[in-house]
Amino acid sequence: MSVNLTVRQIFSWTIRLSAQPDYQALTHKFLAILAEIPWIDSATAYEIYNHERKKPGETGTVHELLIRRFPLDFTRNDEQDPNNLLDGLNHSADLNLSIPDESGSYAWAIFSIKGGSGPERVIHLEGAFKQEMLELLGNLREIYRNLIILHDTKERDVLTKLPNRQSLDARLLEVCEHYSDYQTIDKQAEKSSWIAILDIDHFKRVNDNFGHLYGDEVLLIFSQLLGKCFRYNDFLFRFGGEEFVVILNLASQATAIAAFNRFRKEIANYHFPTVGQVTVSIGLTHVNGISMPSTQLDNADKALYRAKDSGRNRVILYEDMDVLTGDDNSGEVELF
Prior knowledge:
Layout: H1 7-18, H2 23-36, E1 40-54, E2 61-70, H3 81-85, E3 95-97, E4 106-113, E5 120-129, H4 131-155, H5 165-181, E6 192-200, H6 203-210, H7 212-229, E7 235-240, E8 243-251, H8 253-269, E9 280-286, H9 293-309, E10 315-317
Parallel strand pairs: 9-10
Antiparallel strand pairs: 1-2, 1-5, 3-4, 4-5, 6-8, 6-9, 7-8
Helix pairs in contact: 1-2, 2-4, 6-7, 7-8
């Protein structure tokens, strides 16, 4: 088995990869190209998230690797499935290989893709690989890595590294399209998806009283607490300014409300350096496949406005609001 590739084939791969509009499409196309190579039996992509957690009573931190298969199936609760596959690997290495057989071929290879502002990515390949094949795959991986870096600069927030508004629009459309095929019958009892807008209360005062540098620190810590409090199959975004968005999946209405109240209390009890205590108001609504994604986002925003108007530091569910009373919330409220 040898590497027989023409210059035309290599240019074709490069053109196809560079034509993709976002990270999701790029990775789908990269996996499709790998599947075309005859000596590759399977190609799977993973994202690795490195969380730092403090143990109770200890000053040190514990690093936890959270591994998600690409593309994430947010309709399944299979958090542990891919973690077993990558246990024991050297995550600092660019390439992990199986033990070679008698002919010098490797049965599997795992390439790391680092350097982007998002999570580390890895590509797991199964097949029969000689050294010259690994060199070719290494070059192909570099093209993919460079394009990931470009997409991350466009699709991720510079400060928090969370996906930005552009990424939210694409992801919310994907979730809504799923529920257009599968309609939730009982949104209170069934496990489905929920979208929430989270707004840090009186954030303008933080910037005015302590300066934008400490305001940025609050935003960064807030985003890190989001990552620790929500699950691997939930989607987190920085919406803009002091606003964040969470798409919570596989949750009943009671579970969703409890999850956001738990996070709200986590923020209220956290001591932010220099700034001290801050609170967060949250507007929540159910995701469906009938309304436009922009309408559902607007519903969450209306619930957020009600949370601000009714005292802040609380979670308001849009479906619980009396939307038929003609109350358009036209009263003035200080949003910052």
